[in-house]
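Extended Data, record Glycosyltransferase family 15 protein
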Amino acid sequence: MVARSHTRILRFVIFALALILCGYILSKSSGSNILPATSTSSSSSSSSKDGISVDEKAKSESKNDDAKEALQQNKADSSLQSPATPGDLKKEFVGSNVNFQGGTEKATFVSLARNQDLWELVKSIRQVEDRFNRKFKYDWVFLNDEPFSDEFKKTTTALVSGTTKYGLIPKEQWSFPEWIDTEKAARVRQEMREKKIIYGDSISYRHMCRYESGFFWRHELMMEYEYYWRVEPSIDIYCDIDYDVFKFMRENNKAYSFTISLPEYKETIPTLWETTRNFMKEYPQYLPENNMMDFISDDGGLTYNGCHFWSNFEIASLSLWRSEAYTKYFEYLDKAGGFFYERWGDAPVHSIAAALFLPRDKIHFFDDVGYFHVPFHNCPIDQQIRQERHCMCKAQDDFTWKGYSCTPKFFTINNLKRPSGWENYAN
Ligand SMILES: Nc1nc2c(ncn2[C@@H]2O[C@H](COP(=O)(O)OP(=O)(O)OP(=O)(O)O)[C@@H](O)[C@H]2O)c(=O)[nH]1
Ligand SMILES: [Mg+2]
């Protein structure tokens, strides 16, 4: 009798345990479906053998294979990402209400300019104000290697709805560092002049690229801000922007954004990638596992494919440049001398850094602002966006889906959904 009741209890316990086990398995599988993409990807990649850092590859005998495997892993991880299109992210529209009390982010516009750039910059400012800033009234910082003229200051202050600030660039940030062999640099400029490389013979262009790479974010006027939007002379903003892009960046956890991407002119950066690879070998800790190496390299980091975000438009977090990783990276590049011995641009430097030092989901493609800097246009091909935002551009001019653009690659590697009909704008 006792033995029979024991058997019954034992059977009951086994049955109960089986039920609990089933419940546990079910809850695990549904739980993984609702996990945010980043945690899903990091948990899956942590079980993988390695990440994508070149240094890790260097540790192994089969460098190339490891990198390829890591690249595959990254691709697999990115397929778990959401949302489906860049436009699906959270945006708080304020409409075209110019009486809106203004933006609340610690953010500013920033323009590096010469006094003679004034009237081309005025056109840019006027459009940025009309399309966006008259609603949000963010500050505008102007930087120059010479003092700004009164005309420059008066004219721009009258146009900007926020507070304007004018900064002088310290001489040591706009001159040859002492470790640069200026004769060697002069020989390179002469060679580039003969090869007719654009800006190849210019000293000031090189200072500009070095400054935008390593110093604008350290200017004392920039210290109080967390985000910036870089504006150059002679650009166009094609569409209304009725939401606070800085707030958008913060709320969606974005650190870098772009409107146009394309391959760099290789003659200007012969050793930039080699120098970057050496940096990665020395500092593998700066590369997060879910970085975007596959945007800038098609062979797992062996070579640079030249893809870069066109940095004449940038909305980004200053913390990216202030980070230890980027500060060290810039110093490393600066010491290598390529800003002067070659003609390294701030666009490939920023882009390589963003792709390597950020988790990929922190990089955003703005598909709805409409932008032009000679000679490329970003014009939303979605007719509804163009009409709703009063865009003044032709979809046929949009560069995004053209063969030379790197943005299709950005969509592919991040598993983003392309707008319908993109094929019609590919040629
Ligand atoms: N203060 C200062 N600003 C400069 C100088 N050279 C360029 N800039 C600014 O740096 C930014 C980039 O220079 P751009 O001449 O537009 O360079 P780019 O966009 O590669 O070339 P473009 O196709 O000619 O526009 C712009 O905001 C310029 O106003 C300079 O010597 N001094
Ligand atoms: Mg320009």
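Summary. Confidence is low (pLDDT under 50) at residues 22-81.
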